Amino acid sequence: MSNETMDDELVSQFMSFTGSADATRAASYLEMSGGDLQTAVSLYMEHETGNEGTSGGGGGGNFGAASMGGGGGAEDAIRAPDATRTMRLMDDIPGMMAGGGGMGGLMHGHAGMDPSMQLMNAMMEEQFAQSAFGSAFNNSGGRVDPRAAINAAAAAGLDDDDEDDDSYHMAQVDDDDDDEVQVVAPPEPPRLSDMFAAPTHLIHRTGGFNGARAMAKDSKRWLLVNVQSDKEFSSHALNRDVWRDELVENLIREGFIFWQTMDDNPDGRTFCERYQVHVFPHISIIDPRTGRLMWRKEGWTQQNPVTVEFFAEMAMDFCSRNSFDRAPQAPRQAAAAGVRPAPQKRSMNEMSEDEQLEAAMRASIEDAVGGGDDGSSAAEEKVMEIDEEDSKPAAVEESKPSMTDELLAMNVPAEPAKGARIQFRMPDGKKVVRSFDESDSVKTIYAFIAQSLEEARGGRAVSLMSGYPPNELINDIDSTIDECKLSGQIITVRWQT
Question: Which helix (H) or strand (E) holds 457?
Fold first, then answer.
C-alpha cells in the first residue's frame, strides 16, 4: 500500500498519537500493521522512540532535540498524554446474562461458545452441584441466591449435629425439662503434684504401723517401711522414680507389705523414735514376727542414690537370704543394753574331742592357780560331768565322707559351647556366669561352686537358692538342670550358718 492510497485519517491519527511529523514513516508503520492503528502505534513506540532520542536527525529530529534538551521550542515538541482506554480480557458472551443471569448464565453458557469453554463450564457446574449450594442451585434452575444458599447450608448442618456427635466431641444429656449439650473437655496435662504423689496403690493404709505389721505377719511377707520428709526433695523423687516402676511394684506385691509415712505425723514420729531414724528418706525392712530391723537405707546422694536397679537387686538378695520357713531371730536385748550375755555351759557329751581336751586343760590350769579349792573343783566336776565312761577312749567309727568332701572330689565337666546359661551371685557380691549341659544334675552346680570358692574348699558349706520367692536347691540336688528350669536363672550363693 502506497502513501497515496493510505487513508489520510489513519495517518493523521497515527501522527497525533506518536507526535511524529513524518507522514511517510506513519504510512509505512500502518502498512506493516495491516492498517491496524493500535498495532502501528505500538510498533512505533517500541522501535522508533529510542532511535529518535539518539539520532537527532530524520523525521523525528524536533522530538529528539526536545527530549535531549537542545534548541528552542521544547514545549511545542512535547506530545500530549495518551487517552484513557478501557479493555476487556474476555468479551461478553451473547445471551449469557439474558434470562439466566449470574452464575447460572455463566454455567449454562451459549450455543456458540468455544468448545473448551463449554467443557470448563460443565466441570464447574458438576462441582458446584456437589457443594453445599448444590441443592439451591438445582432447585432454582441455575439461579442462586447466595444469602438463601448459605442459610440453607447452615440449617442442614444443624440437622446433622446428632449424627456427628463423636466428631465434634459433644455428649447429649437427657433432662426432664429440656435437653442440654455438655462439652467433653480434652484430657488435662499431668500436673506436677501428680508426678510426685505417693504410690497409694501400693501402700497399706489400715491400722498404721501395727496394722501393716499384722498384715505382713499373717501373709508371711516382710514389712517394707518408707519414712519421708516434705523438706527433702529426694523423698518426692523416690515416689516418682522408684515406687512407680513396674519391676519395683511387682517385687513389692510378691514379697512385701509396703507402709509409707511422713516424719511429722504421730505414727512416723513413733517409728523414728523406736528405730532411731534421723536421715530421710528412710527405707527399712522389718521382720513382722519380732519387729526386728533387718535392713535399712537412709539418705539420698548423687554418689549413692536409691535407683530401681539398686532396690531390685537388694530386694531379691534379701529374699534369697531370708525365709519365713526358718525360725525368726529375736532381738538381742542384752547386747542392746550393753550387758554381755554369759556363755552357756555344755556337758562333756555335747563337746567334740578338741573341746573336751581344751576344757580339761582349762580346768587343770584353774586347779593349779586356785590351790586346789574344793568348791571350785566340785563346780568344775559338775559342769564337765566326767564319768568313767566318758573318760575312756571311744572306739573310732568309720565315718562317711561329708557333703563338702563329696562335692570337692566330684568331677565337674568342662563348660560347653551351648547349654543352660546360669548367673551366680557369690557371697562377696561378685557375679559369675557359666554354662552347663541341661542333662547335668544340680549336684554338678554345687560341685562347681564348692570347687570355685576358697573357703568352700576349706570345708565351709554353701547354700544355693533360686527363683522368687527363693527356694533352696538342695531338695532337687539329684534332678537335672532342665527339670528344674534353671537355664537363664540367677542363683544366689551364701554361706550356711
Answer: helix 454-457
